[in-house]
Automatic annotation (TrEMBL):
Residues 1-151 form the Lipoxygenase domain. One of its GO terms (biological process) is lipid oxidation. GO terms for molecular function: metal ion binding; oxidoreductase activity, acting on single donors with incorporation of molecular oxygen, incorporation of two atoms of oxygen. The keyword Metal-binding applies. It comes from the Eukaryota. Keywords: Dioxygenase, Metal-binding, Oxidoreductase. InterPro entries: LipOase, LipOase_C, LipOase_C_sf. The keyword Metal-binding applies. This is Lipoxygenase domain-containing protein. SUPFAM superfamilies: Lipoxigenase. It comes from Aegilops tauschii subsp. strangulata.
Amino acid sequence: NFSQYPYGGYVPNRPSIARINMPSEIGPDGMRAYMEAPDKVLLDTFPSQYQSALVMAILDVLSSHSSGEEYLGTYQEPAWQQNGKINNAFEDFRERMLRIAVQVNKWNRDPERKNRCGPGMVPYVQLRPSDGDPMAAKTVMGMGVPTSISI
């Protein structure tokens, strides 16, 4: 659910409901009303302010990481540190996570990737490891791969 807010939390990006049919589906009278006052018809179609605020609040809650979230590659059990083989495997995993983060950041800046880069585009962050230092205590909304997920 972490990715929902950037896409659906801002009503003009993705209205949660349509209160009336879109103008092309209404018939000739509806299309005439649309041609005469497009702003009014669109505002009548979009969700009300209350409905929009409710959806925004719900998506914000669902999209937020827990304050005590643990991310893949960031927390090593104390017992793992005692075992050299396990510790080395964890360090290798952590390094791979950092390389993935660098690659995803590179893709997000690539102008050839129209779905990630450009005006109005939301960069891909959902499964990107946490920003920079994987040992950072917190990451911002939508970034980092949680160790486990439950709702």
